[in-house]
Fold these 3 entries.
Entry 1:
Amino acid sequence: MGQQLYGHARLVASVAATLISLACGTNYVYSAWAPQFAERLDLSSTQSNLIGLSGNLGVYSLGVPVGVLIDRRGPRPFVLFGAALLAIGYFSLHQAYDSASGSVATLCFFSYLSGLGSCMAFAAAVKTSALNWPHHRGTATAFPVAAFGLSAFFFSSLGSIFFPGNPSAFLKLLSWGTFGLTLFGFFFLRVSSHRVHEASSRPGSPDPTFRRTLSAEAEAFYPRSATAPQCSPEPGPTATSVPGDAREPQANIDETSSLMPPPLATPENVVASSVDIDRSRRIDFRGLRLLRTHSFWHLFSIMAILAGTGLMTINNIGNNANALWKHFDDSVSKSFLVHRQQMLVSALSVCSFVGRLLSGVGSDFLVRSLHASRLWCLFVACLVFLVAQVFALSVQNPHLLGFVSAFSGLGHGVLFGVFPSLVTEAFGIRGLSQNWGFMMLAPVASSNVFNLLYGLDCYRTAYWITFGACCGGLVITLQAIRHERLERAKDNDGED
């Protein structure tokens, strides 16, 4: 019975995390309503881009402090904060559209609030999923991450069905829809400590702290052996060992204690933890210590290149459509262009959803069945982005723009589908939210640079630059895979 309740609670929390994430990716739908919004308020294309970029900054720029607070206080309060900010941001933009007034700075501020709300709620959802499924983390985080990518398609579809050609009603839908989904998910989003379950499911057995077993993910990192390596996986400071305190009653473990490191281990626990091969629970890299690891710079660089490339297309796919269609047939109507923009946004969103889901589940398959590195998913993401850049450089018929949108969404999805698991494995589960926040700083600079390059000249120049950047990302990914193999070899030599 206890096992059934435990499994049911985790499943309910996973569904709640997925619903919350479905409300958090609405910044990707900006291209669907931005042209009409800019026309109504008489904004230039540069001003319109600033509003869209402010939403992206809200998602990425405060990821570190938000992550620190989530790691310390638990995820649930930040779902509420996120819901409130989403409602305030989108409803204020709705009012600005209705009144046809508002300074660019004010509009950017409200767009930023909507992005920050997405950041808070999404980080809380991913953290909860990672904690609830420690041995299936890639699959568990894939569903909320995939829902984040599907958000644009979900809301744009609702808007086209119920409010066709009505940006005001669509912005109101974004306000109440994101608030309602996030608030509903809040009541069911809870961390179910697997340690409590293990203790209750084996009455009379020794403390679970002394009954650690090899996980499949750990076996991919370290071969099965008598003891686990105790050295840090990176040069520099030794990773923090954080085994549970054997004298601490397991029944007292709650949501907060599963997020924070327990008290200092006794010597007996250090010995017991030598067979705890689940690396993400043994190590704890966070804060400035990240900057002294090779893995951080590998992952940060790859995220900057690929996410920046993806965001450039996401923010400007509508401009691509307008430019090509007007060149191809200057008699097309505004409503036709709006419809085409919505189609491209939907294609991008659906492919992002598919990429996120396949990447998360596929990375678990790589680790558990093939005993390979999750980093190969980043290699695939680089290849997909390269294909997208080739299409962007070669497409002259606007009917084929869907390939640019589809491959950009797919690459973006593969990238973000596997990244939470990579960050967790490299730096530990306890600092996941703040470490994820550090990674989210990467696209802030790169996306702004790529967007500025897009606006300076013909967009073909920008796509040539992103093509070269993706080639560089491919090289960095191979370096990261090689570095990981060398670290494994050192660990194996240490065991021998």
Entry 2:
Amino acid sequence: MGRRQLALKNWVAKQITGFALGVDEPITLEPVAGDASFRRYFRVQADKQSFIVMDAPPEHEDCRPFVAVAQQWLAAGVRVPKLLAEDLDQGFLLLEDFGDQLFYAALNSGTADGLYASAFSELVKIQSIPAQTLPPYDEILLRREMQLFHEWFLQRWLGLSLPRSQSSLLAKVESQLVEAALAQPQVTVHRDYHSRNLMLLPDAQIGVIDFQDAVAGALTYDLVSLLRDSYIHWPEEKVAGWVEQFQQQSPLAKSMDVAAFKQAFDWMGMQRHLKVCGIFARLCLRDGKTAYLQDIPLTLRNLYQSAQRYPEFSEFADWLQSQVIPTVNQQPELQGRELNDRWYI
């Protein structure tokens, strides 16, 4: 056992003893599924109770945003894990255990309508929380995210060096997407509100995790993260119906024209898909997390299908279809997983 894990184990034992729980046997830390960061999560049980421990090395992660957002969202009635103990200097947090039932695992054609309705209700709560204290999802951040597509996805993973005409095309698309995002009503944004960051709790509520990167940003951002998920694909008519359903639930969205809201949703999705393609490539190349490459085809498919719906992006869609998608399909890591091999549930 490494020095850090031993320190974590000793800290957890001390916290649990402080709760006056019985600890008759040595504490064991059972790893649970992590995320795309340097954070690690463990489950620990004592006196028939279960807890989650977050290990966030301070040199890589800052726990303070997690703590601040958790406290604010709990006060607003959003179902995030309760914070039971913290040591910010070491990067240790003891949290309520939400169990293992992922929203993603429960989604199918029979459950989707009900599950998404619950997720919409939780999202409306999140968007009602004042966003003034959160970092802004501003032009600098939006552009920095899309630069990941150029640097990590196109250049480093695919090995594509763009001529000036294609670089200019990409820059024009990015400017259009930034302008559209900043024109939307700005609200509290989770920033990764998708099927693997939502939990189904025993009381039938939706539990929300991985919220520490919350920002003040575009109204449609979290909705597109949920409905144009990188891990699950639905027919477009289903997605359009859910977008309209959310619009009717959201006071802010309801004030917008239906077609304008759908366009804002699609264009915001394009910005996110550009970012996510870059992040998945970086996770593989920099961090050795190769499994994320398998989620690139669906993400790229979502990007292309959104672009081709709008005349403003017809040239960009043609470039994706003629240059980028064929190059992706040739990558050895994706053999047998062509774009049109992805599934509808």
Entry 3:
Amino acid sequence: MEFQTTAQEACYKRIEPWMHHLFGGSVVLFDDEPLFVINFGSAVASTRVIPWEENDALITTRSYVVTDINVTQELSYYLLRENNGIRFGRFALDSENDIVFEHSLVGSTCDQIELKYSVTTVVKLADNYDDEIVARWGGKRALDRWSSW
């Protein structure tokens, strides 16, 4: 695996054993990039370590909540209002208008407890919201879309 910076490499090597400890056999690693994937219920979350600034890294956990959805004004307002009450992370729309939920941590200051809460919050919120959003506005839960490939 190639890293873009030494800070990215150090962060990845520090959190890799934490991810195994926290999520056991459900964590999937990749040989070619600093990425971890876990699933919970109908949600799948990816945790990436990416370079940030000159001497740090970000640990960003993202889960696709609903894909193939028509984004309406009502849905957009709903997501914004929900963001207001969420303590860790946020809903967003990616470049294809898929609904994602993500949270980032500063790599150099992250500890195992922060990582646990960040990853579990993202995957649990995605799992909790996907059914409601699909029922009200359509689209596909991310897991359903990927399992049909």
